[in-house]
Amino acid sequence: MDGDTQFGEVEERLAAEALIVDVDGFEGPLDLLLVLSRTQKVDLLKISVLALAEQYLEFVERAKTLRIELAADYLVMAAWLAFLKSRLLLPPDPEDEGPSGEELAAHLAFQLERLSAMRDCAAKLMARDQKNRDFFVRGIPEDVTRVRKVRYTATLLDLMQGYARLKTRDDFRPYVMDRDHVMTLEQALDRMHGLIGYAGEWTDLLSYLPEGWETDPQRRRSATASHFAASLELVKNGAIQIRQTDLFAPIQIKAR
Amino acid sequence: MEDVQEESLFEAPPIAEQERMVEAILFATSEPVTVAELNARMPHGADAKEALEHLRKRYDGRGVSVVKVGEAWAMRTAPDLGFLMQKETVETRKLSRAAIETLAIVAYHQPVTRAEIEEIRGVSVSRGTIDQLLELEWIKFGRRKMTPGRPVTYMVTQEFLDHFGLESARDLPGLKELRSAGLLESRPPPGEPMADEDDEDENQTEMFEANEED
Amino acid sequence: MEDVQEESLFEAPPIAEQERMVEAILFATSEPVTVAELNARMPHGADAKEALEHLRKRYDGRGVSVVKVGEAWAMRTAPDLGFLMQKETVETRKLSRAAIETLAIVAYHQPVTRAEIEEIRGVSVSRGTIDQLLELEWIKFGRRKMTPGRPVTYMVTQEFLDHFGLESARDLPGLKELRSAGLLESRPPPGEPMADEDDEDENQTEMFEANEED
Question: Which of B129, C28, C52, C111 could form a disulfide with C153 if both were Cys (CB 3.0 to 4.6 A apart)?
């Protein structure tokens, strides 16, 4: 009998030491308390919180003697359990406000029971049949084509109004008139293609301007610009060379 | 497609034909499909819900079954035949104990705040744990709680139900027992009345009652 | 898993069970499966070929069928239910002003090049606008123009005529009619001859004559 007790004590001490060594493996004081409570081998509902508090405090003491650094929250819990222990042991002070030791103990028991229950639930959950492990989804899903039909609401009236808008603008700003004084890049390019063969020497670009475009300032501007752009195009194509010896000096071109 | 809908405005196809349609739609996809979506895709006048009932019976005991996932329906192979399948799918990362417990707490206590999860587990919940569960699409944000700070809450998703083969959160194992044992209540520590106690109870009741109406 | 296979070394599962197995495998595998592969995955002694025959008959006339793909087998939704595999969302959007103007120009001036459209609109026409109209099948490519660079031309389509309720592009009201309908409200500034009106009509005629040659 005696030997049994002794053996029990040894076992307990070994367990406590194992706990301490494994302290990193605990997820905080509540987790540790839950593990300690299991050693009482009773239903969590009937657990002795006082005994549990003592176990915990003992644990912290042992950790101290073994010079194991415990995280702050373990120490906070130890302080709180010491307080709880004194409340449970001392007769209630009628002057004292706040919850009784029994209330605090009941809450701790509730927390432990709840945590334990959640762990069981987690285990049950993970033990369920799981998708793509125990049961499987369709392996060759067929595409559900999401036909997003955009229905455009253009009407014939929209169309005509759009066209009318363009034509109205023409009435105000006749393009035909403008065009008399504008030489396009394409036109200049066409002209220069025909003439470039004759430019064996460096020639002033302006000499390429067509007749009737050199005098009128508006026409001259347009023709100069388009011819300049066209000559750059020809340089790019490797048809001619271009140079300007000085700022504002004449721009000269030469066939390659 | 439109023509079919127009035509059938006047007469829905026979129920056997509707059953075929539901079968084809559920077969074609790997994601659960809601009854509303089924009805939207089927010809006008069809009753997907009824057709589903027929179909479910037809597949009873087959190698593939028609399962309910939250508000939606899907086809899944029978769990007892899992051994035949090549595990082609990439194994999901092994979940940490913290993640598994957090998941269970969200499932059983939803909608639940991070502070409540921490209160239950007794340790702080790392950002990574929540992130991992969000990423797996097993949990999602619920509405904010009407308590100071208006913290966000977490809830489980349809994907969670699908993954664990649950029809609804009501079907979580042991839920009834936990509830009758009072273990799903949010009980404030004595002497520290929680401002949101009433609200909390309301939320819980609401969720499960709302579910029960289905 | 192994146990099942070991056990069945001695006795193959009943054919109904084999049928379930084939069903589950065909459902879940991401590719068609050959009979040899089926046999390899099923318990020893199973006859996938026979089970397949049973399964095929079972799905006869259903919303899903067991089909042969080359040497392998797969499940597919019944072809007549293909229309269910579409989810249509209709969105009504107003055509942009640029698109309407471009479309109008094509309609009134076809066959017309992009450069010509730009000339008439006075601004460049984005690739997107043309693409959109092509996609809507309201315009199509006409023959190339016999000018340098041989640019492509655009024309309106039958689809366009149908949409706008026109018999032919010639039914589009002319400029004079637009004016009398009050669509052209602005008068040209006094003294500026409307050089382009007659010209316009001429173009139209030309255009449609050209069209008729097609």
Answer: C111
Indicate whether B101 and B138 sit together in one domain. Answer: yes
- What's the whole-model pTM score? 0.59
Same domain, C122 and C173: yes
Closest CB from A31, A121, A130 relative to B104: A121
Residue C210 lies in a domain: no
* pLDDT value of residue C204: 40
**Under an 8 A CB cutoff, do B122 and A133 touch?**
no
Chains contacting chain C through 3 or more C-beta pairs under 8 A: A, B
**What mean pLDDT value characterizes chain A?**
79
What range defines the domain where residue B107 resides? Answer: 94-186+194-204
Cα separation, C27 vs B77, whole angstroms: 7
Residues C103, C167 share a domain: yes
CA dist A181 and A167 (Å) reads 21
- Output the domain CATH number for residue B168: 1.10.10.10
In terms of Cα–Cα distance, which of A1, A89, A98 is closest to A51? Answer: A89
Cβ–Cβ contacts within 10 Å for residue C114, how many?
17
Q: Which residue in A136, A146, A159 is closest to C104 by CB distance?
A: A159
| Residue C57 binned pLDDT confidence (cut-offs 50, 70, 90) | very high
Strand order in the sheet with B153-156: B112-113, B153-156, B139-141
Verify that B58 and B130 share a domain, yes or no.
no
Total Cβ atoms within 10 A of residue B171: 13
Query: Could you write out the DSSP letters of every residue in B26-89?
Result: HHH-SS-EEHHHHHHHSPTT--HHHHHHHHHHHTTTSSEEEEEETTEEEEEE-GGGGGGS---S
Mean pLDDT value across residues C136-150 = 88
Distance from CA of A165 to the nearest CA of C (A): 7
Judge if C111 and C61 occupy the same domain.
no
- C76 and C177 within one domain: no
Of C31, C88, C164, the CB nearest to A156: C164
Cβ pair B23:C86 closer than 8 A? no
Contact assignment for B79 to A137 by CB distance below 8 Å: no
What distance in Å separates the CA atoms of residue C129 and residue A49, rounded to the nearest whole number? 78
Domain boundary among C82, C117, C133: C82
Residue at C14 is within a domain? yes
Best interface-test mutation with B: which of C19, C76, C83, C86 has the largest number of B CBs within 10 A? C83
Q: Is the ipTM of this complex over 0.85?
A: no
Q: What is residue C97's predicted lDDT score, i.e. its pLDDT?
A: 87
Instruction: Tell me the C-alpha distance between B159 and A104, whole Å.
Output: 40
Which of C52, C82, C112 is at the close of a domain? Answer: C82
| Residues C66 and C37 both lie in one domain | yes
CA C31/CA C25 separation, integer angstroms = 10
Pairing status of strand C72-77 against strand C33-34: antiparallel
Contact C27, B63 (CB under 8 A): yes
Do B20 and B117 lie in one domain? The reply is no
Q: Across the strands, what pairs with A243?
A: A252
